[in-house]
């Protein structure tokens, strides 16, 4: 199943992977892979500290 856009609310291990580069367990890595590969156009990670991840941060205009 695919979706045009996917929002991912990262769990503790995925937050650590995104912010610190901590290796994921195989189960967490598979879950992240499945979530990311379901998106057709975009994937967004929802986090309270976007500046820690290093990806571009979306902000609304105005």
From TrEMBL:
<protein>
    <submittedName>
        <fullName>Uncharacterized protein</fullName>
    </submittedName>
</protein>
